[in-house]
Design a protein that fits this description.
Layout (H helix, E strand, L loop, with lengths): L23 H22 L20 E6 L5 E3 L2 E3 L2 H12 L6 E6 L5 H14 L4 E3 L6
Parallel strand pairs: 1-4, 4-5
Antiparallel strand pairs: 1-2, 2-3
Helix pairs in contact: 2-3
Length: 142
């Protein structure tokens, strides 16, 4: 019974080629990189905790029970799309809306270049007719 324990002391063969790749250093480097990434990723992804404001874009849509009065640049008054000749006629037409239950909202759309006097006449007519809710329609700032 004989056991081969490798080359004997006097017979070293240095020219022998190693045919396998040693993967131990590669595995060690990959494990170190994995640990580094696992430690640094949570630090990078988390930042200062800030409560951001909630903004909602509300589309302005006229309700069906909204009365729209327009005043153009020349000072002409329109109830919806029909022209109104005199402030007394506007008061008569607005009294019908004032007697409704619930009373509809009145929106005044005045041209930016119109005289304040013409918009004031519309406001006075709405007050004389007994309208409680009067609002102004404007364009939002860009």
């Amino acid at each position: 019974m004989a056991i081969n324990l490798g080359p004997s002391l006097g017979q070293q063969d240095d020219d022998e080629v190693i045919g396998t790749i040693n993967t131990t250093p590669l595995v060690d480097v990959m494990l170190v990189l994995l640990i580094i990434f696992l430690i640094t990723i949570p630090v990078v992804t988390t930042s200062i905790k800030v409560d951001l404001p909630k903004e909602q874009n509300v589309v302005r849509v006229a309700k069906p029970d909204t009365v729209i009065i327009s005043v153009n640049q020349a000072g002409q008054i329109f109830l919806y799309d029909s022209p109104v000749q005199t402030p007394a006629e506007l008061v008569e037409r607005l009294e019908k809306f004032a007697n409704m239950k619930p009373q509809p909202d009145v929106q005044i759309r005045g041209d930016a270049k119109s005289a304040f006097e013409s918009v004031g006449r519309v406001m006075y007519a709405a007050q004389r007719a007994g309208i409680v809710q009067v609002g102004f329609v404007t364009d939002p700032q860009p």
